[in-house]
Amino acid sequence: MDVLHDNLMRARAAGASFARTEADPPWGVRLSGTIQLSVHAVVRGRGWLWLDHPTSAVELVPGEVTLVRGGPDHCIGHEPGADCLEPEEFRARQRQDGNAAAPRATVFFCGAYRFSGDIGNGLLEALPQVQTLSTAAGDPLRDVITLLSHELAFPEPGQPTVLDRLLDVLLVHALRADFRHSPTAPRWYRASTDPRLSTALQALHESPDHPWSVPELAALSGLSRAAFARVFRDTLGQTPMQYVTDWRMALAREMLRTSDAGLPAIARSVGYSSPYAFAAAFRRHHGEAPRTWQRSEQLRPPVRATTDPDTPIAELTQSQLDTLGRASPGGAVTLPSTGR
Predict the structure, then answer these.
(1) Residue ranges of the chain with per-residue pLDDT less than 70
(2) In 3-state terms, what secondary structure has residue 317?
(3) Backbone angles phi, psi at 152, to 5 degrees
(4) Is residue 26 reached through a cis peptide bond, with omega within 30 degrees of 0 on the bond before it?
(5) Assign residue 279 a region: left if phi > 0, alpha if psi is -120 to 50, beta otherwise?
(6) Domains observed in the chain
């Protein structure tokens, strides 16, 4: 199994959101840093995006996509330092002005991508705070942007499915572009592109329930046991079996967090012969029994917005994009769970 695909598939949370907006200068909108990953693209005109200081603003132009990882709030405006309103105020101003269709209007869309659990957090943390992807003529990513704009402007049956897939394509392109050249790319990504390790990594991701051993993984890679162990440690910073255990524990945590599966089923799915062996390994890894960890997770309060401690992230994300979308004919679209 492709390792990047495996991480993305397991990290994806239920649902995503899109909003298409038209705004005539002067304009500006502030979006909360509680949105885990924001996707912005200008279809017509131009705009600027910045975090804390307008002096570091990034220009948004047609043919480019900018991704913003959650953290600080960020602003989008007609110029750096523009007065940025909260989404509700922005919507009211746009409706009051009634000039969204003016020739100078900037047309842009905003998307929110949601992740879940440790695997999702690991992917997010590997991305820069702000990343801009430029596209040249003939670049497939430019076609994706065009399709997104068309779908948002002219909704037809099946639109949520189309938008959901296109957002996935955008994210994969962004991760590839960053991980390919970034010194902070996840070690597993660098290993997955190393021909000496990729086959073994793909195999253990495809079958985490298999009783893997270093000799078997080395044989898959065509290396001696010693050479494989050395290359693996140099590239991933841990031994092969430490990686296997860490990945199994990550999968187990996701199952404990999101499913009603019993310990025997979880144990089998992550390669342990019995629930007792699994519970012992989990305790060694986490310092507590699986069910104790699960109860702690269930009691943990939901993550709250940094700007409004009373608003859950999911509600804030959706309400912001709904509000932003209602400021123009394009509207906002909520993508349902894909079950992935």
Answers:
(1) 1, 12-16, 95-102, 116-119, 300-340
(2) helix
(3) -75, -30
(4) yes
(5) alpha
(6) 7-185+314-335 (2.60.120.280), 187-299 (1.10.10.60)
**Which burial class, exposed, middle or buried, applies to 89 when counting CB atoms under 10 A from its CB (0-12, 13-18, 19+)?**
middle
**How many Å apart are CA 100 and CA 23, to the nearest integer?**
5
- Reference 290, options 266, 272, 313; nearest CA is 266
Residue 60 pairs in a beta bridge with 47
Q: In what order do the strands lie in the sheet with 332-335?
A: 130-134, 64-69, 37-44, 106-113, 16-23, 332-335
Residue 76 main-chain phi, psi, to 5 deg = -125, 130
Spatial distance between the Cα atoms of 10 and 294, rounded to a whole number of angstroms: 18
Distance CA 81, CA 312 (A): 28
pLDDT at 338: 35
Q: What's residue 238's pLDDT? A: 93
Task: Provide the strand spans (E) within 101-253.
Answer: 106-113, 130-134
- What is the pTM for the complete model shown? 0.71
Distance of alpha carbon 173 from alpha carbon 188, whole angstroms: 17
**Is 153 within 8 Å of 330 (Cβ atoms)?**
yes
Q: Are 23 and 106 in contact (CB under 8 A)?
A: yes
